[in-house]
């Protein structure tokens, strides 16, 4: 790692100020950023830790029944703390990495990083979540802009994420056992207004909504509704762990399993 | 250099670190607590697992300054002051839960975190919890058996010696 200064503010306002410094970067749980720094792929002048900011941790239920999670809340806390209010989201958090990763990694860090195989992007997109930052609110549909790319501006902090709670939902993760990330993960969420299906791990464009499946499931929320629907292998990720065609096939399989588990 | 203070195995400890100093480097190099191992240095293997404020974390993927003011527990603090092994350590010895011993400090610390939350885990829960702890020697069976035994459960039916 190159040298850097370390700051640990206790309020969002102080963090925003610290992030105003040249080449400053936010530090969530460090589970992605610290390995990146070790490889000298980033060279911040100052790391601004967000985990000491009390107003950015914790889980609350808002007046309209949505679940709001502080941006610096670790995966283990979501797995426990959201279990009653939004079980599918809690179950997803409990499947990220391993216990030690879940005790450090944060929801804000995961969404800011937008790894194409990460789990939270699927939950945020399928739930139609709102990404709340220190300056604005961003709808999930506008937030994810391709692999490792988001609508966040430099120095912008995810202070919380607000999830509308679906009538039924489930996340199915096909584990890539070496990385512990998703080879393919599908989050299905059924709302009164319709069904949303978000797929992670599969596309070179990062997380995406599978609109054909959404339409089919809106008329019949059952695994059979997916029969005959396919995703084109073009644009899927192909690597030593799985070919494009394999991942395209898994999208259908995992969607069916998610619907079966949610229905 | 910045001053960092934390409680390590119940004792207050202070040292000078850089922003980039890892918690594991502080423990091993500054405090001389070399029981916490570095296997991969890429947050994969779990040889470096310690507890920070009661939660298992990979000390190779946390900065020392992030532990300012925290309670840190390492393998050195697991046995009694007179060297008597705790229940988990004794079970690892009894059930041959180690061969080269490189993964063992992380395994014991992960096991301690598991049993604190879930005092009577099933075999499947133990295996699942150890997802982030790699062992290149034992094939895991005896580690799982040792942890089951440490939780006070009958392990006579669990395969392999
Ligand atoms: C062994 C292992 C297995 C894993 N398995 C999975 C898995 O199965 N599924 C999965 O989804 N993830 C997995 N991860 C990734 C893990 O969830 C990370 O914790 C997560 O991707 C990054 O979160 P973090 O809090 O550690 O962020 P950091 O590493 O601290 O930061 C990542 C990036 O986000 C920025 N950032 C951090 N917080 C904020 C914020 N609040 N606002 C704005 N920007 C911010 C940082 O500047 C940095 O650019 C795994 C990681 C490891 C090491
Ligand atoms: S040395 Fe920390 S996880 Fe391997
Ligand atoms: S005993 Fe050798 S790595 Fe586990």
Description:
The complex is a heterodimer of chains A (263) and B (161). With 263 residues, chain A is an alpha+beta fold. In chain A, 30% of the residues lie in helices and 22% in strands. Chain A has helices at residues 12-19, 33-38, 75-81, 87-93, 99-102, 107-113, 120-127, 140-143, 211-219, 244-262, and strands at 5-7, 24-27, 46-49, 59-61, 67-70, 130-133, 137-139, 158-163, 168-175, 182-191, 194-200, 208-209. In chain A, the strands form three sheets. In chain A, strands 4-5-8-6-7 form a five-stranded antiparallel beta sheet. A four-stranded antiparallel beta sheet of chain A has the order 9-10-11-12, sandwiched between helices. A three-stranded parallel beta sheet of chain A has the order 1-3-2, with helices on one face. Chain A is globular. With 161 residues, chain B is of the alpha+beta class. Chain B has two domains: 2-77, Ubiquitin-like (UB roll), CATH 3.10.20; 87-150, Orthogonal Bundle (DNA polymerase, domain 1). Chain B has five helices and five strands; from the N terminus they run E-E-H-E-E-E-H-H-H-H. In chain B, a hairpin with a 2-residue loop joins strand 1 and strand 2 (11-17). The longest helix of chain B has 14 residues, at 104-117. Chain B starts with a strand and ends in an 11-residue tail after the last helix. The mean pLDDT of chain B is 96. Classes of the chains: A alpha+beta (263), B alpha+beta (161). The A-B interface holds A 1-6, 8, 27, 30-31, 34-35, 37-38, 46-47, 49, 51, 76, 97-101, 103-104, 180 and B 2, 18-20, 22, 41-43, 46, 49, 52, 55-58, 61-63, 65-66, 68, 110, 113-114, 129, 131-133. The structure holds flavin-adenine dinucleotide and FE2/S2 (inorganic) cluster (2 copies). One FE2/S2 (inorganic) cluster (FES) binds next to loops of chain B. Chain A: It holds the Pfam family FAD_binding_5. Chain A: Keywords: FAD, Flavoprotein, Oxidoreductase.
């Amino acid at each position: 790692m190159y040298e850097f200064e370390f700051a640990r503010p206790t309020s969002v306002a102080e963090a925003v100020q610290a992030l105003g410094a040249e080449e400053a970067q936010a530090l969530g749980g460090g589970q992605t950023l610290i390995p990146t720094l070790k490889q000298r792929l980033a060279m911040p002048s100052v790391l601004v830790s967000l985990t000491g900011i009390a107003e950015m941790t914790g889980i609350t239920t808002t007046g309209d029944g949505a679940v709001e999670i502080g941006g610096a809340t670790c995966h283990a806390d979501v797995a426990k703390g959201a279990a009653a209010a939004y079980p599918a989201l809690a179950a997803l958090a409990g499947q990220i990495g391993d216990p030690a990763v879940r005790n450090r990694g944060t929801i804000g860090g995961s969404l800011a990083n937008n790894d194409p195989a990460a789990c939270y992007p699927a939950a945020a997109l399928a739930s139609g979540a709102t990404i709340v930052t220190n300056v604005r609110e961003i709808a999930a549909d506008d937030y994810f802009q391709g692999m490792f790319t988001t609508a966040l501006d430099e120095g912008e902090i995810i202070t919380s994420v607000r999830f509308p709670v679906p009538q039924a939902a489930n996340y199915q993760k096909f584990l890539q056992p070496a990385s512990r990330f998703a080879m393919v993960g599908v989050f299905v969420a059924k709302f009164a207004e319709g069904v949303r299906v978000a797929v992670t791990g599969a596309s070179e464009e990062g997380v995406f909504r599978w609109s054909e499946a959404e339409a089919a499931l809106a008329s019949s929320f059952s695994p059979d509704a997916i029969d005959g629907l396919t995703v084109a292998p073009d644009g899927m990720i192909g690597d030593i762990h799985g070919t494009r065609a394999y991942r395209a096939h898994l999208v259908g399989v995992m969607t069916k399993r998610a619907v079966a588990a949610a229905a | 250099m910045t001053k960092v203070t934390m409680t390590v195995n119940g004792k207050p400890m202070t040292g000078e670190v850089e922003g980039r100093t890892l918690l594991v480097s502080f423990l091993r190099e500054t405090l001389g607590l070399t029981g916490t191992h570095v296997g991969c240095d890429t947050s994969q293997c779990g040889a470096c697992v310690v507890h920070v404020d009661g939660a298992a974390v990979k000390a190779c993927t946390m900065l020392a300054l992030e532990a300012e003011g925290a309670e840190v527990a390492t393998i050195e603090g697991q046995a009694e002051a007179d060297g008597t092994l705790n229940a988990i350590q004794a079970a690892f010895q009894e059930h041959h839960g180690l061969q080269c011993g490189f993964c063992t400090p992380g395994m014991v610390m992960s096991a301690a975190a598991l049993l604190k939350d879930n005092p009577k885990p099933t075999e499947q829960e133990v295996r699942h919890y150890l997802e982030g702890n790699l062992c290149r020697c034992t094939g895991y069976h005896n580690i799982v058996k040792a942890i089951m035994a440490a939780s006070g459960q009958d392990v006579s039916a669990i395969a392999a010696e």
